[in-house]
Amino acid sequence: MLNITGERWHGLCYSADIRSKHRNSRKHMKLYKILLPIVAVAASVGLLSSAQATPITGMLNIGGTATFDTSSLTTASSATFADVLVLGGNSGAFAGFAIGTPVVMASYTFDPSTITNGLWSVNGFTFNLLTSTVVSRSATFLSVSGTGIITGPPGFDATQGMWAFTSQNAGGRPHSTFSFSANTTAVPDGGMTLALLGTGLMGLAAFRAKFGKV
User: Fold this and answer.
1) 3-state class (DSSP) for residue 20
2) In 10 A of CB 56, how many CB atoms?
3) Are 63 and 87 in contact (CB under 8 A)?
4) Would you list the domain boundaries of the chain?
5) Higher confidence at residue 119 or residue 38?
6) Mean pLDDT over residues 22-50, rounded?
7) Distance CA 160, CA 7 (A)
């Protein structure tokens, strides 16, 4: 017969409990060692992906024919577009765009300011309009500026920029020429807005001269 005193039994139980904890600790350590490399690899892949992305920079000019919801630009609030093409004077990521490349453009509501995803799309780049502010208008002239996000093909980061929309409606015709300039090289400010509006006016002249639109 085995006779174990209470103190001896307590010691055996305590010793067994320590060994059990050590085994559990080793199991957790093994699990930790297995999980850590997996998490580290996943994190490094994410960082690599971010490091390879490139912000979109430069200016893109497009132009075409706009049909507004009223015959006078004084009261116009929205427009649809046709014959939209890439104009000249582009830079940065858009420098290689051939003049005359067709542009897909959605309907545009500028008053009130309306978010418009996919306002224009060309060569894998898409412009998502966020804000619109009417800068100047008359019966035959309209200029609008605002902010938006340009997305590009794989490898490019979505980039915030500013834009200017300019349209002339000669003689109250329902169809107007327009130009749209987007610039991602600077945070929107008053000076850049004026520069873009000036580019828009030159774009109107270039579009009429090259493609014979009025």
Assistant:
1) helix
2) 23
3) yes
4) 1-52, 55-211
5) 119
6) 39
7) 75
CA atoms within 13 A on the CB side of 129: 26
| Spatial CA neighbour of 94 closest among 177, 164, 150, 155 | 150
pTM metric for this prediction: 0.65
Locate tokens 């610039």: which residue?
Answer: 183
Per-residue pLDDT band at 125 (split at 50, 70, 90): very high
Eight-class DSSP state of 183: E
End-to-end CA distance of the chain: 114
Q: Which amino acid is at 175?
A: H
**What are the residues whose beta carbons fall under 8 Å from the beta carbon of 156, sequence distance 6 or more?**
53, 54, 55, 56, 93
Q: For residues 107 and 120, is the Cβ–Cβ distance under 8 A?
A: no
Question: Could you tell me if 180 and 162 are in contact, meaning their C-beta atoms sit under 8 angstroms apart?
Answer: no
What is the rounded CA–CA span in Å between residue 95 and residue 186?
17
Q: Rounded CA gap, 169 and 73, in Å?
A: 7
Look at 75 and 172; give whichever has higher pLDDT.
75
Q: Going by C-beta distance under 8 Å and a sequence separation of 6 or more, which residues neighbour residue 171? A: 140
Which two three-digit tokens encode residue 59?
Answer: 């200016």
Q: Taking Cα atoms as reference points, which of 82, 97, 74 lies closest to residue 213?
A: 82
